[in-house]
Design goal:
- The chain has helices spanning about 5-15, 30-40, 40-45, 50-65, 100-105, 115, 125-140, 150-155, 175-185, 220-230, 250-255, 260, 280-290, 300-310, 325-335, 340-350, and strands at about 25, 65-70, 75-80, 80-85, 85-90, 145, 195, 200-205, 215, 245, 270-275, 295-300, 315, 355.
- With about 375 residues, it is α/β, with parallel strands linked by helices.
- Helix 13 (about 280-290) links the parallel strand 11 (about 270-275) and strand 12.
- Helix 1 (about 5-15) packs across helix 2 (about 30-40) and helix 13 packs across helix 15 (about 325-335).
- It starts with a helix and ends in a 23-residue tail after the last strand.
């Protein structure tokens, strides 16, 4: 692979979503990683010149004014060469513009109005993808419905070079791919494909025929504990779930729709959620409820009240960056009827403390009796 081809590949990747003339901080290791990606294999990179080639590329980019040496960057000795830990990357690419004829060429099937007001997106790479979509739309009536990933590979398998971070089969489902389709106002139905619903881990009470009560649990340990309690007929709360779902943190927001494949009346069930007593756990619930407005989703408040009562001594400091807006917190607290519960949850937040869901376990429940919904904390 020639040095000029690698530099072109670098410029395309590093300048994505960076306005003309602006700059961003890029680590030396990130630049080398992109060069290796251009070779598709580290062995090919080494055979093509390895670090010696990489240092020549850095020199070229510095001479062209694409990279700038920051005064505060630490010097790194790599082989015989002195490099900087990071560089300023400046997008010096000339602003491209599509011609009137190009717009007319695809206007019969695609709406490019978004691009007229976004000249920074009028790139050759974007145009090639648009042409692929346009060609497909001409004969979409001859196509058979397949999965989104299968369609993504079908559309872009021959496209080279491929400058995206996602593999071709995953691109339509990626953030960038979804944004691309949104700009074109093209749906998955237009592409004769559908998203594959990722199944979640669940447990259905074998004694129940029709599910009415669903409990989604953030953590796997708590999911297994609840499963064990139902098996052993030791459920400690008044409302007993008939279907347990392992939410896996924020993942439940993307795959809860799978429930429509499981139940005959998914919109008629009561869905309750229980997670960690920390900002991230609260936000998972808020996003979960907002994403699925057609479902009756509420908090399993008895879990939180139990954790505050029996797990208070096990509260710990929040060591990760977790933020929640006042509006999100208010929505979360509105699920509770007991004022003391709201006060204790607010106290935890103000003191940057949390109670993990794992305080609810079989050992801790040994001496507990069933808890009424209206009991005080």
């Amino acid at each position: 692979m020639k040095k000029e081809e690698i530099i072109s590949y670098l410029l395309d990747n590093l300048s994505q979503r960076l306005r003309i003339g602006s700059r961003k901080k890029v680590s030396m290791f990130a630049i080398e990683k992109e060069v290796i990606r251009a070779f598709h294999d580290i062995n090919r990179y080494q055979a093509g010149g390895g670090f010696q080639l990489f240092s020549l590329i850095i020199d070229q980019l510095l001479n062209d004014g694409v990279l700038e040496i920051p005064r505060t960057a630490r010097v790194i000795k790599k082989g015989p060469k002195l490099l900087r830990e990071w560089y300023w990357f400046r997008n010096n690419k000339e602003l491209q513009s599509w011609s009137y004829d190009q717009y007319v060429e695809v206007s019969d099937l695609l709406d490019l109005s978004y691009y007229r007001s976004s000249p920074q997106l009028q790139t050759e790479d974007e145009w090639r993808k648009i042409k692929i979509i346009h060609a497909f739309m001409k004969k979409r009536h001859l196509r058979t419905p397949i999965s989104r990933e299968e369609r993504s590979l079908h559309l872009f398998s021959w496209l080279s070079p491929w400058n995206e971070k996602e593999e071709k089969e995953k691109w339509l489902g990626s953030k960038e791919g979804k944004s691309f389709l949104k700009r074109l106002k093209v749906t998955l139905d237009d592409l004769v494909c559908y998203p594959v619903r990722e199944p979640f881990v669940y447990f259905k009470n074998p004694t129940v025929v029709t599910v009415q009560e669903v409990l989604v649990l953030e953590g796997l340990s708590t999911f297994n504990t609840c499963k064990q309690l139902i098996y052993e007929k030791k459920w400690p709360f008044e409302c007993k779930p008939e279907l347990l779902i392992f939410g896996a943190g924020f993942r439940i927001i993307g795959n809860f729709e799978y429930i429509e494949d499981m139940l005959s009346n998914p919109g008629g069930v009561n869905v309750r959620y229980a997670g960690d007593l920390d900002p991230e756990g609260y936000k998972i619930f808020i996003d979960f409820k907002r994403t699925y407005p057609k479902f009756n989703i509420h908090l399993a408040t008895e879990f939180y009240e139990w954790s505050l009562r029996h797990g208070w001594s096990q509260k710990t400091s929040i060591i990760t960056k977790q933020k929640i807006t006042e509006r999100q917190l208010a929505l979360f607290l509105s699920e509770f009827q007991v004022l003391k519960t709201k006060e204790l949850l607010t106290f935890l937040l103000q003191n940057k403390e949390r109670i993990a869901q794992e305080v609810f376990n079989a050992e801790a429940l040994t001496d507990c009796v069933p808890i009424d919904k209206t009991s005080q904390v």
